[in-house]
Write a structure and sequence with these properties.
Elements: H1 2-27, E1 37-43, E2 47-51, E3 54-56, E4 64-66, E5 69-74, E6 78-85, E7 92-94, E8 101-105, E9 114-120, E10 126-129, E11 134-136, E12 142-144, E13 149-150, E14 166-167, E15 172-174, E16 179-181, E17 184-187, E18 193-195, E19 201-203, E20 209-210, E21 219-223, E22 225-227, H2 233-266
Antiparallel strand pairs: 1-6, 2-5, 3-4, 7-22, 8-21, 9-10, 9-13, 9-17, 11-12, 14-15, 15-16, 17-20, 18-19
Helix pairs in contact: 1-2
Length: 272
C-alpha cells in the first residue's frame, strides 16, 4: 500500500513542477525573444514482484518444496526530468524604435543550429540572447534593457553615442562614434544552451562560433522590430488545465490510501 502512496505523491510533485514551468512560460509571453520551456517526464525504474512460497510434502520428515513464481512488474511513479528551451523563430513586431533589433534566422547548416546576439553579463562573461530590446546608456554604449553590454564580432563594447544610428541587414552598426559589426553567435546544437536570468543563455556544449564564419549560415538583422516570444498562450492554458486535473487525480488517490490506512490502524481488529 505504501507503494501507492509513493507513486501518487510523486505524480503530485511532478505536476506541481510542471505547473511552475507553464506559469513561467505564461509570465514571459510578452518578453521579446523569450524561448518557452518544454518539460520532459520519466518514470522511476519498475520493480519486479516475485512471490516466494512453498509447501510441505506429506511425509515423515515433511520436506519443504519451494514454489516461487513471478507476479509481474509494478511502476513506482513518475518525475519531471528537466526543462529544455524550445528554439524556434518567434513572430516579428514593428516598433519603429531605432534601438530595437530583431535577429531573423534563414537557412542553418545544422538541424538544431540557432543564432544569438552576443552580450556580456555583469561579470564580463560572454552570454547570448535573442532579446533585441536594446537601449543606449549614459556613456553611449549599446546595452540590453537590463544593462548588459551588447558586443561586436570581436567581443568589444559598441559605442553609438546616440540612439540615432543605423543597422544594416548584415548587422553592421553605423553611428558617429562607431562603425562595426554586431556579434552574431552561431550554436550548431541550440539544445546545449542553458537559460540564465535576464533572458540570457550560456553555452555548455559545442563551442560557439561567429555566424559570419560558418558556411551556409543565413541571418538578417531588422532594425525597428522585435522578435516576439514563441510562447503559445492558448496551448499553455490548455496544458495548465490538464496538469491541474492530473494533480487532482493523484491527490484523490492519496486521500483514498489515507482513508484505507486509517481504517487499518483504527478499525480493523478492534475489540468491541
Amino acid at each position: 500500500m505504501l507503494r501507492g502512496y509513493n507513486a501518487a505523491g510523486a505524480g503530485m510533485i511532478a505536476q506541481q513542477r510542471y505547473q511552475d514551468a507553464l506559469s513561467n512560460n505564461m509570465s514571459n509571453a510578452l518578453t521579446p525573444g523569450y524561448k518557452s520551456d518544454r518539460s520532459t517526464f520519466r518514470a522511476f525504474p519498475e520493480m519486479l514482484i516475485n512471490a516466494y512460497d512453498g509447501y510441505n510434502l506429506p511425509t515423515q520428515n515433511e520436506p519443504r518444496i519451494p514454489n516461487n513464481h513471478r507476479v509481474g512488474a509494478i511502476n513506482t511513479g513518475v518525475y519531471m526530468q528537466e526543462n529544455t528551451p524550445h528554439f524556434n523563430q518567434g513572430d516579428l513586431r514593428d516598433t519603429g524604435i531605432s534601438t530595437d533589433l530583431a535577429l531573423v534566422n534563414g537557412n542553418m547548416p545544422d538541424e538544431d543550429g540557432f543564432t544569438f546576439f552576443t552580450v556580456a553579463n555583469e561579470d564580463g562573461a560572454l552570454r547570448y540572447t535573442r532579446n533585441g530590446n536594446f537601449t543606449v546608456d549614459a556613456e553611449g554604449f549599446l546595452t540590453t534593457s537590463q544593462g548588459h553590454y551588447v558586443l561586436d564580432q570581436n567581443n568589444n563594447r559598441i559605442q553609438t553615442g546616440t540612439e540615432q544610428f543605423e543597422v544594416t541587414e548584415n548587422g553592421q552598426v553605423i553611428s558617429p562614434f562607431d562603425n562595426t559589426l554586431l556579434g552574431i553567435a552561431y550554436q550548431p546544437n541550440a539544445n546545449d544552451m542553458v537559460k540564465e536570468g535576464d533572458n540570457l543563455f550560456r553555452n555548455e556544449g559545442v563551442a560557439i562560433q561567429n555566424a559570419r564564419e560558418v558556411a551556409g549560415t543565413e541571418f538578417s538583422v531588422n532594425q525597428g522590430q522585435l522578435e516576439r516570444s514563441n510562447v503559445d498562450p492558448q496551448h499553455m492554458m490548455t496544458e495548465m488545465m490538464r496538469s491541474y486535473r492530473l494533480f487532482e487525480i493523484n491527490q484523490q488517490v492519496v486521500k483514498t490510501y489515507d482513508k484505507s490506512m486509517d481504517m487499518a490502524a483504527n478499525q480493523v481488529g478492534r475489540i468491541n
